[in-house]
Amino acid sequence: MVYVDPGSGSMMLQLLLGGVSGIYVIFRMFKQKVLGFFGIHTESPQPVSELQAVSAKEDRNRR
Amino acid sequence: MQPDLLGADFQRDRGSFRDPDGYIVRRGERIFRVILPSAVQRWRQFASSSLITDLQSDGLLIGTRDVSGAALAAELAVPAGSLVLEHECVPFLSYPYEWTFDMLRDAALLHLEILERALEHNWILKDATAYNVQFRGVTPVFIDVLSFAPLRRGDVWAGYNQFCRLMLYPLMLEAYKQIPFQPWLRGELEGIDPVIFSHMFRGLEQWRGGVLSHVKAQAYLQRRLASAQHSVRRQIESAGMTTQMIERNVQRLRKLVENLHPPPQKTTWNDYSRSHYSDEALARKEEFVCECVAGRQFGLVWDLGCNDGRFSRIVAATAGTVVAMDSDAGSIGALYGELRKEQRGNILPLLMNVANPSPAQGWGCGERPSLLQRGKPELTLALALVHHLVISANVPLAALVQWLAETTGELVIEFISKDDAMVQRLLLNKDDTYADYHREAFEQCLERRFRIEARAELPGETRFLYHAKVND
Prior knowledge:
Chain A is an all-alpha fold. Chain A has helices at residues 8-16, 19-29, 31-37, 48-62. In chain A, helix 1 (8-16) crosses helix 2. Helices cover 40% and strands 18% of the residues of chain B. Chain B starts with 10 loop residues before the first strand and ends with a strand. In chain B, 43% of the residues are buried.
C-alpha cells in the first residue's frame, strides 16, 4: 500500500538512472508518441502481459 | 476504522498516524504496534520469512514479538482481526535534526542495506523516512516493521524521493556546501525539497557526485511532471519497472552516501577538559562526579554540555542510558566516532542547544515530542555550562535553576565565578550586566529549589561543584 507520494518526477528519474533497461521502459511508455513522430502508427499498445514476460526474462538473466 | 478510545494506561503515539496499516501505542516504557486487518496477512508473511530473522539476528531491525490476545486486544480496543506486537524498547528517542553528520549517514546506510537485503528476498520498503531509524547508544536500528511490503512486478521504489529529502540531500548539504543540515531538518520535517535544493548548486558544483542526477534531474522532472494529469506510477508499473533497476539505483546511492564526508570541524571545545583544567582540577572534578554516583543506579541520565563526554563515560557505569548533549557539532561528532570504536552501548550523543532544546512539533504539535517530553532524567550533569547559558545566552540564573528543578531529579552542577578566565573571555566584548552572577546568588537560587547534598571547590578558587536533589 503506497501511502507516500513517490513523486512523478522521482519515479521517472528512477527509470533514467536504471540504465539501458530504464531507457527501454521509457521508450515503451512513450512508444506511440515516438513512433508517431516518425509517422508510424500502431494499432494498439503492447499488451501488459507481454511486457511482464520481457521483465521476467530480464530478471532471470540477472539471477 | 481506527479506535479513538484507549485504556487509561495506553497512549497512542502522536507521531504514528500516516501509515494506514497500523499504529503505535505506548504503555509506560512498553511499545506496542497494532496491525490493522488490512495488513495482517502481509505481516504474517513477513514474520515467517527468513528476511526478518536475518535482519533481527544482525541487530538491524528492532526486536518484535506477537502479543495478540483477547485481553490485550480488548484493552487496546483494536478492530476485530487486528494483531498486537510488542517492540523492544529504544531507551531514548532522538530525531535526525539532533544527529551528527555521521549519525545521519549511518542511518542512511542502514536503510539502504535493509532495502538491498529486502529486494533480494522480493520485499521492498514502502517508505524511506529517516524517522524510521533510532539509535540504541551509538547503534542505529530500523524500527518500522510495517515498512516492509512484498515486491510486485513493476513496482517502483516509492521511497526514493523521501530518501533524497530526508537523508541524501541533508548529507550533501553539509558535505558539499559546509552548511549544517540540522536547522533545515528541524524546520522542515518532510526534508529538503528537490527544487529548492537544486538552486544551491551552480557552475562546477553541479558536477559533484550525485548532484546532476539526484538533485538537478529530479528537480527538473518534478517541475515538468507537476501538472501531469495521469498516474505516472501506473504508467511505469505497466511498462515494466524491474527489480534490477531498483537494485542498481540503491547500490549507486550506497556508494554515493559512503563517499560523502563531513567538512573538517572547527570545534570550540576540542580537548576542552584538558585545555581549561589543570590535571589536579580535572582529577578532583572526576572524583566529585564519581562520589555523587557511587553505589547508585540511575535509569536515565542527561549530560548537558558534555563536550568530550568524559563525565558521560563516568556516569554511564551506573546508568541505564546517558544522553550526552552539546551544541557543538565537532564535539558530538568526535564523541560519536569514539563511542562507536569503544562499542559503548548506553551513551547516546545528541546535538542540542540547552538554550533552545528541540520543541514539540509536526501535526498537532505532537508528532515529534520535545526533548523534555521524551523522558525525565533521574540525574543531570551540568558541568561548565551555567556561565554559557547565563552570560552568552542571557538566561537569568534563577530561571535556569528553576528549569533544571522542573526537568531533573538530581543535579551535579558546576558554577564558575566571574573572575575565572573562561568567564572573562565571554565578557570580553560585552558590558557586564550580570550583577547577580556570583557564587552566593547561585547557591541561594539552588537552595530555593534543591537540597545540596555535597559541594567541592576546585583548585584555583573560581570553580565550584554541587550535588543537589530537587525538593519534594
